[in-house]
Amino acid sequence: MGVHIHNLKDLAQNQSPKGANPFEGIMVRAGALSSLVKAHDPPYSTSKNVYEHIESNLPDWVEEGITIRERYAV
User: Within 13 Å, how many C-alpha atoms sit on residue 9's CB side?
Assistant: First the structure.
């Protein structure tokens, strides 16, 4: 699983832009890894809300990732 970590403030108080999905360029038997691996995207535009969203959802996202991995374990 992955998390788009963007809209967070840097030391200069500038918010970071959203980058590309890192799983798009990795190919596996099923096609792009992004078809199997979810990249969560916090829906907020303020740094504080993004941090809170990631913090409150990360345990569930990890469990979801484990469940998905188990479907494809060899």
Answer: 7
pLDDT in tens, 43-56: 999 999 999 999 99
DSSP single-letter state for residue 27: E
C-alpha torsion sign, points 30, 33, 35, 38:
positive
User: What DSSP character marks residue 8?
Assistant: -
* Structural domain count, the chain: 1
Rounded to 5°, angle at Cα 39 from 18 and 11: 35
Q: Which domain holds residue 43?
A: 2-72
Structure pTM?
A: 0.77
What's the average model confidence in pLDDT over 22-26?
91
Overall size of the chain counted in residues: 74
What is the CA angle 36-70-62, rounded to 5? Answer: 70
Phi, psi dihedral angles at 22 (to 5 degrees): -65, -15
